[in-house]
Design goal:
500 residues; two-stranded antiparallel sheet; 57% helix
Length: 500
């Protein structure tokens, strides 16, 4: 039995059709658990089934046909009972439980608790008739999304800005090449400083346009329209931030000591714009988003080249002043994926539902938003982190060789963000958000050694020689780093334990 798998529940009469379903799932890189393959002679059947459902399944798929109606006794009924017990423990609207019909049968009315029943609450997939192939493709894609996380469609803003940065001008130099030239040439520090001043001025000019990005306003629209406006506003912020992504990425990757001051000043200015002490909460909180995205760009860029001196300059040293806090703190300690939602955690799920739409820029309906607010649709765990992951993946396509490398890089960058925030709280008097809301928390909920534990182990093995410390993170102090990383490990474990 594998630790992570899709559990297929069925009866023997449907074996051939389940074989086809298993083949499609495994072709998509998913591990499948079936009693015919994963039970050995002498195994305690009931115990093994319970373990497979309760401990290891990322998705439980109940497969049904009219053949079940003719059977008075079936092991599948026992599997469904265990699945119902497990479903009751999970967040409302969780995608863990799915149903499949192989013909025009009746799905059993299994009690899922809270007035919910399997045949009424869980959306089914029909794998028969003319819709077989498209429905099979949609089912596999849905399961992959549940297992790997919701990856939003590629942002047109990011792809356009990246493509524009590669176009050559009259001097036969692309924008990216100009940035590289400014970084490479030691005598061009003055030109580099001017370039950074222009970059941040252009960003701030757009972000301070209060007609486009109001901070104070009176809400008169319905909740559904407010939610759609919030999603559209994120897109507008991305359009602004996209112009700065390519240069900041390159500076984080290749910048040297002489570039750190201008880089820090730029990230500080952008972060301070994200700290709005007055105004409508909804707008104040969402105004953090562009600086947060660019902080991710800087962190990922520094990580891919192990340029932790620039990571320190662009993330840890990007200090902002926050109301009622005596000393400046790193922007990443103030902001984060959870903060952009403000007081309305459900807004992140609206964004996730929009990302799941097959059509670009499609927005959730009134009914979908109402269902999210009422938690008839379960709230996503880390929707902003998932969204930023998908947003920035094309930006780093040429730098992280394999998708798995980007997955790991994103996880480790978020762990360092949380560690910097934890260290900030321990060094001062700021008791803001406790972090731990990066996608690495849920992605590794079934992993014995998640990324934060691996990174702590590397720190303990390397001591002063740990690469982030050598770059200046945590003041170069191994004890500070260890204390912060232990805080991240504890927080991640607590979050995983409370959610799953």
């Amino acid at each position: 039995m594998t630790d992570k798998h899709v559990f297929l529940s069925y009866i023997r009469e449907d074996k051939d059709r389940v074989d086809e379903l298993q083949g499609a799932l495994e072709a998509a890189g998913l591990s499948v658990w079936r009693d015919t393959m994963d039970l050995w002679p002498g195994d305690d059947w009931e115990l093994k089934i319970r373990e497979a459902i309760k401990a290891g399944s990322l998705v439980f798929v109940g497969c049904f046909s009219t053949a079940l109606d003719s059977r008075d006794v079936s092991y599948q009924h026992a599997e469904l009972s265990v699945a119902a017990e497990e479903y009751r423990k999970r967040p409302v609207g969780t995608n863990w439980l799915m149903t499949v019909r192989f013909d025009e049968c009746t799905v059993p009315p299994v009690d899922l608790g809270g007035g919910r029943r399997l045949n009424e609450t869980i959306q089914r997939t029909d794998l028969f008739g003319a819709g077989y192939l498209p429905n099979l493709s949609r089912l596999v894609a849905t399961i992959v999304r549940v297992v790997q996380g919701s990856i939003p469609p590629i942002s047109s803003h990011v792809t356009a800005a990246t493509a524009s940065a590669k176009r050559v001008d009259q001097d036969n130099l692309s924008y990216s090449e100009r940035v590289r030239m400014l970084i490479r040439e030691p005598s061009a520090v003055l030109d580099f400083d001017e370039f950074m001043a222009e970059l941040r001025t252009e960003q701030l000019t757009q972000l301070r346009d209060r007609e486009r990005f109001p901070i104070s306003a009176t809400l008169t629209s319905s909740n559904s329209e407010i939610a759609r406006d919030w999603v559209r506003r994120l897109g507008d912020y991305e359009a602004v931030a996209a112009d700065a992504m390519e240069p900041l990425k390159l500076i984080a990757m290749y910048g040297r000591k002489e570039h750190e001051l201008a880089a820090t000043q730029t990230m500080r200015a952008l972060g301070q714009e994200g700290v709005q002490p007055t105004g409508l909460n909804l707008y104040r909180y969402v105004h953090q988003y562009p600086a947060l995205v660019l902080t991710y760009v800087a962190g990922l860029g520094a990580h891919v080249r192990q340029n932790y001196s620039m990571f320190n300059a662009m993330v840890s040293s990007a200090l902002v002043n926050v109301q009622n806090v005596r000393q400046p703190i790193p922007y990443i300690a103030y902001s984060g994926g959870r903060n952009v939602n403000g007081d309305a955690d459900w807004l992140g799920t609206v964004l996730a539902v929009a990302d799941d739409k097959p059509t670009a820029n499609a927005l959730p309906t009134d009914d979908e938003i109402d269902a999210i607010q009422q938690q008839k649709i379960g709230l996503r765990l880390t929707p902003l982190s998932d969204h930023i992951f998908g947003l920035l993946q094309p930006l780093f396509a040429d730098h992280y060789i394999h998708e798995q490398d980007f997955l790991q890089g994103f996880d480790e960058t978020e762990v360092l963000f949380d560690a910097i925030a934890a260290d900030s709280r321990k060094q001062g008097e700021y008791w803001g958000p406790n972090g731990g809301y990066g996608r690495y928390t849920w992605r590794h909920r079934h992993t014995d050694v998640p990324p934060e534990k691996l990174m702590l182990a590397r720190l303990e093995a390397s001591g002063d020689g740990w690469t982030p410390l050598m770059g200046g993170l945590f003041g170069g102090d191994p004890e500070r780093a260890r204390t912060a990383m232990e805080d991240v490990v504890e927080t991640a474990a607590r979050i995983r334990g409370s959610r799953w």
